[in-house]
Amino acid sequence: MLKLNRKQAVWAGILLLAFAAVKIAALLWWQSRQPAVTSVAESACNVHAGCTLPNGAQVKFSSKVAAKAPFDITLHNVPAQTAEVFVSFSMRGMDMGFNRYKLLRRPDGSWAAPQIRLPVCVQNRRDYLADIHIGGEVFQVGFTAE
Known about the structure:
CATH topology of the largest domain: Immunoglobulin-like
Number of domains: 2
CATH class of the largest domain: Mainly Beta
Radius of gyration: 21 Å
Transmembrane segments: 9-30
Keywords: Membrane, Transmembrane, Transmembrane helix
Helix content: 10-25%
């Protein structure tokens, strides 16, 4: 077993505190650089039927979105200068891990991601949130999976 004298223990403690401070500062910096999320009321946006986001883009999921089956997402009227579109899923009060799906631009100008799978909820909840990232904007839309 490794034994530290008092001076070594103090230096080890100082180094651990310094590391923690740097980690917290980096986390705060990263969080400050994230775009603000614009929530879209579920009553105002039915992703199964299709709806218009505040920036004018139209989002539509496959008619059936089940928790254990793949589905498609399509976006129309995305601003022409947009370089990247992706979507991720979560639930209120629950982190669903890393799940990011990149949508690809089609020749007709729409964006699509086929065969997306929702992250599995161990509590069997079905109330998902879709974070739709369009360029530097994020729109959060709630929906219920079957």
